[in-house]
Amino acid sequence: MKKLLTSRRLVVLVVVVMVTVGVITFSSRTRTSQEKPALPMRIASDVSTWVSEVVTSPVKAVGNTYNAMTQMFDVYEENERLNKKVNQLAATQVQLQNEQHENKALKKQLKIDKTLTDYSIVNAAVIARSPSNWQSQLIINRGSNAGLKKSMSVMGAGGMIGRISEVDTTSAKVELLSDNSQTADRFAIRVTNKNNQTVDGIVAKFDQTKNQIVMSKITSKTEVKPGDPVTTSGLGGITPSGLYVGKVNKVVESDYGLTRTIYIDPAVDYNNIPVVSVAIPES
């Protein structure tokens, strides 16, 4: 039985080989002749083409899928790299803006140095400011080791902002001119009009909604107009005179015309104070 099966296999193999050789022979003759191929040849050719397409189509599909997946992963990796670069550029831009802002503030501080000829200047950076007393005080990174003492005047980028209220070795607290607390020491200020006439008073309060300094209960009849400069008066001996505070915004008469209230636009934005200068009197 086994021999019979072996003989059949051998016969099938011989037939397949003969058919294959015949197809190749007739194909070569057909290519060299102008005669139309015989029907069996056309059938064999069609079957061969169909088998080839059946075999190669899945292979091509797998290859195309692999290429598509490879391209997708490449695009994903490139997208990740681009996102990292965008984040780095954004961080660099923020840092640059902060440095530019600080640079402008320092340049303004240099102009202040030239106006305080009788004082030596110690520049400091603001290192802390509590939201609960934002308009009352701030902390700077200079202290007694830099020569700072209590009640020394502190200037911002454009004008006076307050004075030293507490000093440690390496830091100090600054009481702001905008402090509305009951325990705050009121600043003595002076308005000078175009005729060089002056009106003295104290800071009554700071209007946070309008961002204005309020100088109230003025009994002087001296003419004051919007735009007149406001400086420290030096009265009381705590704060030196002549430190720029701001300019008059408007003057409001009281109901009976006995007193006036002067609203002043400060020279400094109290919500944005990155650096300060402390005026130390020269001995």
TrEMBL record:
<protein>
    <recommendedName>
        <fullName>Cell shape-determining protein MreC</fullName>
    </recommendedName>
</protein>
<dbReference type="InterPro" id="IPR042175">
    <property type="entry name" value="Cell/Rod_MreC_2"/>
</dbReference>
<keyword id="KW-0133">Cell shape</keyword>
<dbReference type="InterPro" id="IPR055342">
    <property type="entry name" value="MreC_beta-barrel_core"/>
</dbReference>
<comment type="similarity">
    <text>Belongs to the MreC family.</text>
</comment>
<feature type="coiled-coil region">
    <location>
        <begin position="79"/>
        <end position="109"/>
    </location>
</feature>
<comment type="function">
    <text>Involved in formation and maintenance of cell shape.</text>
</comment>
<feature type="domain" description="Rod shape-determining protein MreC beta-barrel core">
    <location>
        <begin position="126"/>
        <end position="278"/>
    </location>
</feature>
<keyword id="KW-0175">Coiled coil</keyword>
<dbReference type="GO" id="GO:0005886">
    <property type="term" value="C:plasma membrane"/>
</dbReference>
<dbReference type="InterPro" id="IPR042177">
    <property type="entry name" value="Cell/Rod_1"/>
</dbReference>
<dbReference type="InterPro" id="IPR007221">
    <property type="entry name" value="MreC"/>
</dbReference>
<dbReference type="Pfam" id="PF04085">
    <property type="entry name" value="MreC"/>
</dbReference>
<dbReference type="GO" id="GO:0008360">
    <property type="term" value="P:regulation of cell shape"/>
</dbReference>
